Amino acid sequence: MQAYREDHMAARFPHHYQVRVEGGSGGAVISSPPRPEFRGGPPVEFDGRDDWWSPEHLLLSAAGLCLKTTFEALARRAGMAVIAYGSRVEGVLEKTPHGIAFTSVEITADVMVGEEDAARAEQLMQSAKQHCIVANALKVPVGLTTSVKTVALAPA
Known about the structure:
Elements: E1 20-22, E2 28-31, E3 38-40, H1 55-78, E4 82-96, E5 99-113, H2 118-131, H3 133-137
Antiparallel strand pairs: 1-2, 2-3, 4-5
C-alpha cells in the first residue's frame, strides 16, 4: 500500500494549525476562524454540562474524523468510489498508575463500496489507520506553554 507522500498534499509541509480557547470558569468558546465557534468544557463526569463538547469527546471525534478523511484520501488516489461511510468511536478513561488516561480507543467503521472494491477497501482502511495523523499523535508527548495573567478581585 502506498504511503502518504508530500507531493500528494495540497500544501507543502510543515502545515500549521491554530485554535483559540477562551472563557472564564464556566466553560469555553473554541474558535478557529472562519469556522463556526462552539462551546466546550468538562464532561458531566467531571462536573461539566452534557451540552458542552468535552476534551474527551473532541479527542474521540478527532480520531474518528481523521480516520475517515485519511481513508477517503487513499480511496480517491486509488480511484475507488466510497458510497457511504459511518463510524462510532468509543474510548475508555481510567485511573492508571500514571494518572487518569484513555486506556483504549476503538473505532468501528462501516464503509460501503462497490462489490469489486471490497478487498481493496479493507486494505485501504488498514492503511488509513496506519497513517491517521491524530491516532499517531496519541503516541507522543503533548507540549504545554503557559501564560498566567492576574486580575484584582473586588473584596467579598
